[in-house]
Write the structure tokens for this entry.
Amino acid sequence: MRRPPRVYISGLISNGGRIKDPFVLAKNVNAVRKTRDALWIAGFQVFCPHTNDEGVNSKGVDYKLLLQYDYFQITFHDCIYMMRGWEKSEGSRNERIHAIRCGLTVLYSLREARRFLKRWGSL
């Protein structure tokens, strides 16, 4: 049996720390959590840096160190899922470029993710 595809979620959260409003941050994280859960339920193995790294930046962990770790994680995935609004995030734009260079499939919707999953199962 083939392993489930691994997906990395990319999307706007704090825009490199420039978004400070706690309501906006919570809204962004909540949207990512819903997508993360939907992808797990669909059958993906999911890496979500937003929830993996949650809160450590405010504890003094260098943002650039987190980005390096996230780029490293991308290399272990089969596809990257771009959350709605990803274009507004410099980090997401860079993650997308890195993912494309690594040969990952870029997904922009749950519909695309489900089609990817069907193709994955038929390979």
